[in-house]
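Tokens for Lysophosphatidylserine lipase ABHD12. Go.
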Amino acid sequence: SADGSSNRRKGLQLNILFQCFFSFFSRLGVLGKMKRVFFWILIIYVSIPCIIKLVPSIQAKLVFLNFVRMPYFIDLKRPLDQGLNHTHNFYLEPEVGQRVGVWHTVPAHMWREAQGKDGAWYNAELNSAHAVILYLHGNAGTRGGDHRVQLYKVLSSLGYHVITFDYRGWGDSDGSPSEGGMTSDALFMYDWLKQKLDRRPLYIWGHSLGTGVATNLVRRLCDRGAPPDALVLESPFTNIREEAKSHPFSMVYRFLPGFDWFFLDSITANNIRFASDENVHHISCPVLILHAEDDSVVPFHLGKKLFDAASQSKSLSGHKVQFVPFASSLAYKHKFIYRSPELPNILSNFLGSAHPVAQ
């Protein structure tokens, strides 16, 4: 009937009106939730710079990242577990009561002879006819980090002894990290090695944050008139302020008014500088810089800028200073330059001697 049809239309209209009414208030609820989420994100965003400014030690921890131990659950006393069957683990004391963990990897062709040998044998082999590389790793992780282990294997296969260690506060080493402490540990390790070597070449290799330690170390050595045979800087930066400003973690704050005051001054307040761009003006030994164009952690332009500074250094006049870029298409990024098949030739040409062939 007409009345029934009219009632159905009214019912349908009421139902549509009710759905619109419910949908409107539902949207208000979602918007309200979104506003609350946005509000808390804004509070956190504003709070982080304030907290870092009030507690500068937090910024130091973010620079060193020594509390990030990757891979987890590895036993640093057993380098064999990481595929290093020709590596000896031991401990030294740069200062009384301050123990640091050290690995010594002999040239790969000696792996059979190395089986079952003790520390005395490894020490004696430092007097063999093979050059030694003191490797200074970057922040986070330990001397057992996978990309580091892979580099030890490459250098070992080229006939080098590789000595690496965890700075105080890293891995199973005692103490707390600081720029001064890291540099002191590196100087102690260099002197310890130099005493054991019979005029064998001793090269220093730094990676990432370790490049800052390396230039600090070499500057000290040059100041006392005893430079190393060569310095290799892998993925280096100019100084810690420029690196912090370029780091991807700083992206969300980089354009914040007062960024330098909140973040960079907090780093300086911890006496952290790693001023490689200053150090190169006090270094007098061959310098090789390796950098991948697709490095997002330490941008390529910082490595190039450091090379430009080194090229103009009066103290480096007469010494070989070389910059080797790696194309983005190779995807070596920040820590995979060891994969380059050109690396053996690069090192051989730079260091001026052919590498022993692994047997």
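Strands lie at 87-95, 98-105, 132-136, 161-165, 202-207, 230-234, 287-292, 321-326.
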